[in-house]
Amino acid sequence: MGAAPPLKPSGVVTKSQVPAESEIIDRLREIASHPAARGLRDDAAIWQPPLGRELVLTHDTIARGVHYLPGADPSDIAWKLVATNLSDLAAMGAVPSGILIGLTLDREDGAWLERFAAGLARVLSEYDTALFGGDTVRAGATVLGCTAIGHVERGRALTRIGAQAGDDLYVSGTIGDAGLGLAALRGEAPADRFLERRHRLPMPRLALGQGLFAAGARAAMDVSDGLLIDADRLARASGVAAEIDLALIPLSKQAGLRLGEADSGPDGRLTAATSGDDYELLFAVPPAATSAVVALAGAARTPVTRIGGLSAGRGIRVLGMTGEPLAPGRLGFTHDAPSTGAR
C-alpha cells in the first residue's frame, strides 16, 4: 500500500481519501505477523494456548467523544484501545497473547489510518502482543472495539470475588492524573504534558498483575471508572464492605499541585478518587502478605499504596483527611450518565 494522501489544507475529506475496507485490511496485514493471524486471509485466527493454561478473554469498546476527544492523535487512540483491554488482563494476572479489533469508522481518511496503524504496532510491540484479526465497517459514528486474549496458570486467575474481611486494599501507581489530564485537553485547565499523557496513554500494570496471586492477593480489578466506585464494586462482588482513607490515596506531584497543594485536601482527593481512566490495579491482600506484595512491587517497578481495608458488611465508607466519615456526592463514572465529551 502506498503512502496515504495528505489532508487538504481546508481539512475537507473527499471520498478518494477514505480508504476502502480492503485498503484498511492491507494496512493491518503488515502488523498481523503472528502465525495465528494467517495473514488475515481467513475469517478466523487459529491459536494454540500454552499447555496447562486457562484462557482469559476481555472486550472493551471506545467511542469518539466518549472515551477520546475528537481530533485526538489516532496513534494515541490505538494505544488506548489496546492498553485498556490489557489492563483487564493485568487485573486477572494473565499474560497477553493477542487481540482482535473491530473498527467502525465514520470518515477517517488515509492519514488517520496510517497514524492509527503506527500506534497499534507500537502498543502491540511494547506489550509483546499479536494482532490476530478483526473486522472493519463504515458507519455514521466512530466506535472501536478490542478483544484481548491472554492466559494464566490453571486455577490462579484473580477475580473480584475472593476478598475477605480483614484484607487490606492496595492500589498501584497514582490516582487522578488521567482525569486532570482530560480537563487540560478539553481546555478547562492549563496544559500539563504529564497529566495529559496519563489520559492519552494508559499503562497496563501487567508485570505487577502477573505476580499478585503468588504474592498472596485474593481479589483484584483495574480502576477504570474511579477508585471509589471500583472499590465499591470489588467489595460488593466479594460480599464485604470497603473503607477508603482519602489521606492515603497516592497522588503524583503534578496532580497534587493541580488540585491545590502538594498534599491535596479532601475536595481534591475526592476529585482524584472519582475521576476515572486511571487503569491502575486495585487489589485485596491479607496483612500477612504485605512483605511479599512490597517485594513484588519493587521487582515490577510499580509503586503500590495501602489505601484502606475490607470488613464485614456491605458498601463503601470514605474517610476524610482526619478520619472523619464523608458522604461523596458521586463515586465515579457510570455508563448510563450523559456523555460530556470524553472520559
Automatic annotation (TrEMBL):
<comment type="function">
    <text>Catalyzes the ATP-dependent phosphorylation of thiamine-monophosphate (TMP) to form thiamine-pyrophosphate (TPP), the active form of vitamin B1.</text>
</comment>
<feature type="binding site">
    <location>
        <position position="60"/>
    </location>
    <ligand>
        <name>Mg(2+) 1</name>
    </ligand>
</feature>
<feature type="binding site">
    <location>
        <position position="58"/>
    </location>
    <ligand>
        <name>Mg(2+) 4</name>
    </ligand>
</feature>
<dbReference type="Pfam" id="PF00586">
    <property type="entry name" value="AIRS"/>
</dbReference>
<dbReference type="GO" id="GO:0009030">
    <property type="term" value="F:thiamine-phosphate kinase activity"/>
</dbReference>
<feature type="binding site">
    <location>
        <position position="333"/>
    </location>
    <ligand>
        <name>substrate</name>
    </ligand>
</feature>
<feature type="binding site">
    <location>
        <position position="60"/>
    </location>
    <ligand>
        <name>Mg(2+) 2</name>
    </ligand>
</feature>
<comment type="similarity">
    <text>Belongs to the thiamine-monophosphate kinase family.</text>
</comment>
<dbReference type="Pfam" id="PF02769">
    <property type="entry name" value="AIRS_C"/>
</dbReference>
<keyword id="KW-0547">Nucleotide-binding</keyword>
<keyword id="KW-0808">Transferase</keyword>
<feature type="binding site">
    <location>
        <position position="88"/>
    </location>
    <ligand>
        <name>Mg(2+) 3</name>
    </ligand>
</feature>
<feature type="binding site">
    <location>
        <position position="88"/>
    </location>
    <ligand>
        <name>Mg(2+) 4</name>
    </ligand>
</feature>
<feature type="binding site">
    <location>
        <position position="67"/>
    </location>
    <ligand>
        <name>substrate</name>
    </ligand>
</feature>
<feature type="binding site">
    <location>
        <position position="224"/>
    </location>
    <ligand>
        <name>ATP</name>
    </ligand>
</feature>
<dbReference type="InterPro" id="IPR016188">
    <property type="entry name" value="PurM-like_N"/>
</dbReference>
<feature type="binding site">
    <location>
        <position position="43"/>
    </location>
    <ligand>
        <name>Mg(2+) 4</name>
    </ligand>
</feature>
<feature type="domain" description="PurM-like C-terminal">
    <location>
        <begin position="164"/>
        <end position="318"/>
    </location>
</feature>
<keyword id="KW-0479">Metal-binding</keyword>
<feature type="binding site">
    <location>
        <position position="135"/>
    </location>
    <ligand>
        <name>Mg(2+) 1</name>
    </ligand>
</feature>
<feature type="domain" description="PurM-like N-terminal">
    <location>
        <begin position="42"/>
        <end position="152"/>
    </location>
</feature>
<feature type="binding site">
    <location>
        <position position="225"/>
    </location>
    <ligand>
        <name>Mg(2+) 5</name>
    </ligand>
</feature>
<keyword id="KW-0460">Magnesium</keyword>
<feature type="binding site">
    <location>
        <begin position="134"/>
        <end position="135"/>
    </location>
    <ligand>
        <name>ATP</name>
    </ligand>
</feature>
<keyword id="KW-0067">ATP-binding</keyword>
<feature type="binding site">
    <location>
        <position position="160"/>
    </location>
    <ligand>
        <name>ATP</name>
    </ligand>
</feature>
<keyword id="KW-0418">Kinase</keyword>
<feature type="binding site">
    <location>
        <position position="43"/>
    </location>
    <ligand>
        <name>Mg(2+) 3</name>
    </ligand>
</feature>
<dbReference type="InterPro" id="IPR006283">
    <property type="entry name" value="ThiL-like"/>
</dbReference>
<feature type="binding site">
    <location>
        <position position="88"/>
    </location>
    <ligand>
        <name>Mg(2+) 2</name>
    </ligand>
</feature>
<comment type="pathway">
    <text>Cofactor biosynthesis; thiamine diphosphate biosynthesis; thiamine diphosphate from thiamine phosphate: step 1/1.</text>
</comment>
<dbReference type="InterPro" id="IPR010918">
    <property type="entry name" value="PurM-like_C_dom"/>
</dbReference>
<keyword id="KW-0784">Thiamine biosynthesis</keyword>
<feature type="binding site">
    <location>
        <position position="277"/>
    </location>
    <ligand>
        <name>substrate</name>
    </ligand>
</feature>
<protein>
    <recommendedName>
        <fullName>Thiamine-monophosphate kinase</fullName>
        <ecNumber>2.7.4.16</ecNumber>
    </recommendedName>
</protein>
<feature type="binding site">
    <location>
        <position position="222"/>
    </location>
    <ligand>
        <name>Mg(2+) 3</name>
    </ligand>
</feature>
